[in-house]
Design brief:
The chain is about 45% helix and about 15% strand. It is of the alpha/beta class and about 425 residues long. The radius of gyration is 21 Å and the shape is globular.
Length: about 425
């Protein structure tokens, strides 16, 4: 029986394909292919019951060639070192694609934050911060929120690091509360970036935003904000799913009311006027745009052929497996890859880091305008390479990113 490749192994294979297209020198390939450093930590935490539980955490820095490394912290039961290495690699490509003065990193803790009390989460976060403190810092490595974490987690991380440094260090993390130096527009930035790139894809395909039908897999921060902006634009959101299941309404879901419903009940299920469906059914929904905004590998060779959408906006990291990607490309789907589509979060994280360093903060309109300009410019760069080389949007984005990372590494070697 052939062993299925891990997400990280798939990422390394993708790197090799791109490196071949770029004809990269073997020494440069070696320098930028794998992480600079990886840390595994034990995190003993006293639970509310008095029991001491050992959690396991990770922090991986893939590259610092273009600046201090940057990447989110994930709290999830299925976190693995392999996954964190893959996500750190993709973050390095993402920051390079957007030409930010950042490298790539990622962190994670194996836990279920939904089963931990507020006090347990705080103790876990502070201990984890202490354990990785030798790696992070505003000039070294800047964490941010990811799956299972939020601005409260970032506030605790910033406070713990600042206590250790005996001074306020707001720039050690991004995605913080506004009152602690967070940037206006940061919470919405990833979803807003998906929205901006989606509008550009509709422009390319000559689709009217007011006539498109949209399905969204994952109704967390990214999915709900993307859906909300599309709804405001006039699109019809016909289906939405979360970890509990999915709902459908061919006439369109009222997204602001659905967001309120989920905040009250914890799920999209039971939304008045909608029909229930399984999480898996969302991939076969009749629609023009599909937004996979949950976890990685949700679109596989088993469901890729069911997808009827013409545009796929990857709100999540690596939501499409390599086998599924080949199917989508063969079916002429317009895929906006994760390193481009969900880059809004790291772009505004960069803005926040700059704001922290200069102690001067932009208005939300200024942040959103700068984000829109960045997203559109990079989308058009990727599209131009796509049309010139006759390769998919994903490979075009990866080629731009890895070329920049290679050039930065050459200058420093």
């Amino acid at each position: 029986m052939v062993r299925e490749k891990s997400p990280y192994e798939n990422t390394l294979e993708t790197f090799d394909r791109v490196a071949d297209l770029l004809e990269l020198d073997a020494s440069i390939r070696s320098l930028i292919k794998t992480p600079d450093r990886s840390l595994i930590v034990k995190i003993p935490v006293e639970l509310d019951s008095g029991e001491i539980h050992d959690f396991k955490g990770f922090r991986v820095q893939h590259s610092t060639a273009m600046g201090p490394s940057k990447g989110g912290i994930r709290y999830h039961p299925d976190v693995t070192l392999d996954e964190i290495m893959m996500l750190a690699t993709l973050m390095a490509w993402k920051t390079a694609l957007f030409n930010l003065r950042f490298g790539g990193a990622k962190g994670g803790v194996i836990c279920d934050p939904k089963k931990l009390s507020r006090g347990e989460l705080e103790r876990l976060t502070r201990r984890y911060t202490t354990e990785i403190s030798t790696m992070i810092g505003p000039d070294k490595d800047i964490p941010a929120p990811d799956v299972g974490t939020n601005e409260q987690i970032m506030a605790w991380m910033m406070d713990q690091y600042s206590r250790m440094e005996k001074r306020a260090v707001p720039g050690v993390v991004t995605g913080k509360p506004i009152l602690l130096g967070g940037s206006l527009g940061r919470r919405e930035a990833t979803g807003r970036g998906c929205y901006f790139t989606g509008l550009e894809a509709m422009r390319v395909l000559k689709m009217d935003p007011k006539s498109v039908r949209v399905a969204v897999e994952g109704f967390g921060n990214v999915g709900s904000i993307t859906a909300g902006l599309m709804f405001k634009e006039g699109a019809t959101i016909v289906a939405v799913s979360d970890s509990s299941g999915g709902i459908y309404d061919k006439k369109g879901l009222n997204i602001p009311l659905l967001i309120e419903h989920k905040q009250k009940t914890g799920s999209v299920l039971g939304f008045p006027g909608s029909d229930k469906m399984s999480k898996e059914d969302i991939f076969g929904v009749s629609c023009d745009i599909l937004v996979p905004a949950a976890l990685e590998a949700s679109i596989t060779k088993d469901n890729a052929r069911d997808i009827r959408a013409q545009i796929i906006i990857e709100g999540a990291n690596s939501p499409v497996t390599p086998e599924a990607d080949e199917i989508l490309e063969a079916n002429n789907k317009f895929v906006i890859p994760d390193v481009l589509a969900n880059g809004g979060g790291v772009v505004v994280s960069y803005f926040e880091w700059v704001e922290n360093r200069q102690s001067f903060y932009w208005t939300e309109n200024e942040v959103n305008a700068r984000l829109e300009e960045k997203m559109i410019n990079v989308f058009r760069e990727v599209l131009a390479l796509n049309q010139d080389k006759k390769i998919g949007m994903r490979m075009s984005a990866y080629m731009l990113a890895i070329r920049r990372l290679a050039e930065a590494t050459q200058w420093r070697s």
